[in-house]
Design brief:
11 helices, about 425 residues, alpha+beta, 5-stranded mixed sheet
């Protein structure tokens, strides 16, 4: 294949037509000069010029001339042979050498093209000298200068074409890379949003529904002997449903949890403990230590969610009488500790998460803390209660992962 032959573009196609017209024009000029000068062999000159034109015209019609160098070399040899005959008959045929230079350089390899151009220039000089019967430097300058110009133009064009192709390939690679990166970013964004929604649903709707279920069970047990107590549980369940509906609307809109509206994290935790104590058979108490400082919203949301999830586990699984929630300001860290006196469990033998039984709480807590550069520690043993400690730096990491969700659950769920 003729790898050096560039694909035709509107510009190269226009240049090719210009070259075709130049060849035809020069052949017509050779034939016209022979006729107008009244040369005795004008007929043969016109005939050879016509044959040369027909042989030349076969090249553009055959696509293999551009694609296969052997075919191109055979076609150029045929054109050159007819041109030599015409040169032997008419000195004006020397002008046709100039477009032949471009054809040879364009269709042949660099070395073969240069050799063909040199042979054509020598033939042009020799033929013209034979017709004039003399030889001088001026006869060499014209064909040699034309050959040099053709070499410079064609090789320069080929160099520019190669550079253009290299840049085109680089642009295509860059475009493909950007498309791959965009797809990867889109996929990462989708996964991050799924993770955010999963945590949000776990800590809001799942916890709230769990709380409503426990309250309704308590109301069912109180009937019919204690209708007042049953009614109280139903009212609490209805309020939990109202709170969780607000939570669902908030996290869908990516707003902060309603529990943090118009209050601090300490106030939200204190209210959470009071709500948990009022709705369930566990006494939850809140403690604040250290000097309170303003916290980033992401920190407040994460700690509130962790407290809600921890108390949910305490209510559902710990069978605890008391739970102590402590928020500690430790200078460059903020700490949340949730301690209960329940049945406890073995942290090393947790059951796997299951869509039916739950068990996503601890994973969600760790994901929230990891996103903010924090840590989660759990200490527990069967029969000895549970202590959960969450630590967050007040200076967030330079490249945090996904931001923690933005809305809290109203009630507790299950221990993971």
């Amino acid at each position: 294949m003729n790898a050096s032959a560039p694909a035709l573009t509107p510009t190269t196609r226009a240049l090719a037509w210009c070259l075709h017209l130049l060849v035809v024009g020069l052949l017509v000029l050779v034939a016209a000069r022979a006729v107008t000068d009244g040369r005795s062999h004008a007929g043969p000159i016109v005939a050879v010029a016509v044959v040369c034109g027909l042989v030349y015209a076969a090249g553009p019609v055959l696509p293999r001339v551009r694609l296969v160098r052997r075919v191109a070399a055979a076609w150029l040899a045929a054109v050159g042979a007819v041109w030599l005959v015409l040169l032997a008959l008419s000195p004006e045929a020397v002008w046709v050498a100039f477009p032949l230079y471009f054809l040879q350089l364009h269709l042949l390899s660099r070395r073969a093209g240069l050799a063909a151009v040199t042979a054509t220039a020598v033939a042009a000089v020799a033929g013209y000298a034979a017709h004039t019967g003399s030889f001088g430097p001026a006869m060499v300058i014209g064909p040699a200068l034309g050959a040099a110009v053709a070499v410079a133009v064609v090789w320069g064009y080929q160099a520019l074409y190669r550079e253009s192709e290299r840049r085109r390939r680089l642009i295509e690679e860059l475009t493909a890379t950007r498309a791959d990166l965009a797809r990867a970013q889109h996929t990462a964004g989708v996964l991050a949003e799924r993770e955010r929604l999963a945590r949000e649903i776990h800590d809001t709707l799942a916890q709230g529904l769990s709380s409503i279920q426990l309250l309704l069970r308590a109301a069912e047990r109180a009937l019919p002997e204690r209708p007042d107590a049953a009614a109280g549980h139903v009212v609490a369940a209805r309020q939990a449903a109202v709170d969780n509906l607000a939570e669902a609307r908030r996290f869908v809109a990516a707003l902060t949890p309603p529990a943090l509206d118009g209050t601090t994290l300490a106030g939200a935790l204190e209210r959470l403990c009071a709500t948990t104590s009022a709705r369930h058979r566990v006494t939850a108490r809140f403690h604040l230590t250290g000097v309170p400082v303003p916290l980033p919203t992401a920190h407040e949301v994460a700690l509130l969610r962790i407290a809600q999830s921890a108390l949910a586990n305490t209510v559902r699984h710990a069978d605890a009488g008391t739970a102590e929630v402590t928020l500690s300001h430790l200078g460059d860290h903020i700490a949340l500790d949730v301690v209960d006196d329940g049945t406890g469990f073995d942290p090393d033998r947790l059951p796997p998460a299951d869509p039916e039984a739950g068990g996503f709480g601890l994973a969600a807590m760790r994901a929230r803390l990891d996103a903010l550069g924090g840590t989660l520690t759990i200490e527990s043993a069967p029969g000895h209660g549970t202590a959960l400690a969450a630590r967050l730096p007040l200076v967030p990491p330079t490249e945090p992962g996904a931001c923690p969700p933005l809305a809290p659950p109203t009630e507790p769920e299950a221990r993971p």
